[in-house]
Design a protein that fits this description.
- There is one protein chain.
- The protein is mainly alpha-helical.
- The chain is built from 13 helices and 2 strands; from the N terminus they run H-H-H-E-E-H-H-H-H-H-H-H-H-H-H.
- Mean pLDDT is about 95; it is low at about 245-250.
Length: about 250
């Protein structure tokens, strides 16, 4: 498979992920929407369905949709990222680039869908929260630990049961993301995906959003570094305890 196809697959899959994921947050957070104040459970299910859709769209490339997943596969020593896609430096950068661009584009389309509600929303924090994550209690070490743990769960389960999200199955991955959200999402909003947070945060910074306020770049590195560390640890644990992986998979 050509890297061009891989790139476009990840772009469109991750775009669908963030369009629907950021969209459910917008529906809950922004003033005057039909889903306003529907609560965190609606957000977690919305993100799960967003993953479900994104995995289907990007199935050809293995539907990583997440640099932490790509990195976990790399560290775990996989020979292919997807059928006929060898693990190389070039393919790794292709996945990273497609995931980040797709996340950015999905957030832009979400803004277009909710443009009037963004204009009417009085709180800048609600607007930023539609695009990117933020902590309930701001504490750098603990916020980082939460993101590491959540992403470790995501990548370790993917490595154990499927190799890639598409191999694990769209519904299984969607339910896994819902489970992480309801169980571990409270402290930080569970980015568990560097592209999912950074791409939309860049969109927030560059879009002409009325009264948008700060993009909170001081926090922005945590939902990038935490998931990358969590994905790396998941890949390494899979190597360190190789006997566990087949047993769990069986």
């Amino acid at each position: 498979m050509s890297l061009g196809i891989v790139f476009l697959s990840e772009v469109f899959g991750t775009m669908m992920l963030t369009l629907l994921g950021c969209g459910v947050v917008a529906n809950v957070a922004l003033k005057g929407t039909k889903g306003n104040n529907a609560g965190f459970l609606m957000v977690t299910w919305g993100w799960g369905i967003a993953v479900f859709a994104g995995v289907f769209v990007a199935a050809k490339s293995g539907a990583h949709l997440n640099p932490a997943v790509t990195l976990g596969l790399l560290v775990n020593g996989k020979g292919e990222y997807a059928p006929d896609v060898a693990v190389t430096f070039g393919s790794t950068l292709t996945y990273f680039g497609g995931e980040l661009l797709g996340a950015f584009l999905g957030a832009v389309v979400c803004w277009l869908a909710y443009k009037q509600h963004f204009d009417d929303e009085p709180l800048a924090a609600n607007k930023l929260g539609t695009f990117s994550t933020g902590p309930a209690i701001r504490s750098t070490p603990w916020n980082l630990i939460t993101e590491i743990i959540g992403t470790f769960v995501l990548v370790f389960v993917i490595l154990t049961f499927g190799g890639t999200p598409s191999g694990l199955g769209p519904l299984a991955v969607a339910l896994l993301v819902v489970g992480i959200g309801v169980s571990l999402g409270g402290p930080t909003g569970y980015a568990i995906n560097p592209a999912r947070d950074l791409g939309p945060r860049i969109a927030h910074a560059v879009l002409p959003i009325k009264g948008k306020g700060s993009s909170d770049w001081a926090y922005s590195w945590i939902p990038v570094v935490g998931p990358l560390v969590g994905g790396t640890l998941a890949g390494l644990v899979g190597l360190l305890v190789p006997g566990i992986m087949p047993a769990l998979a069986g």
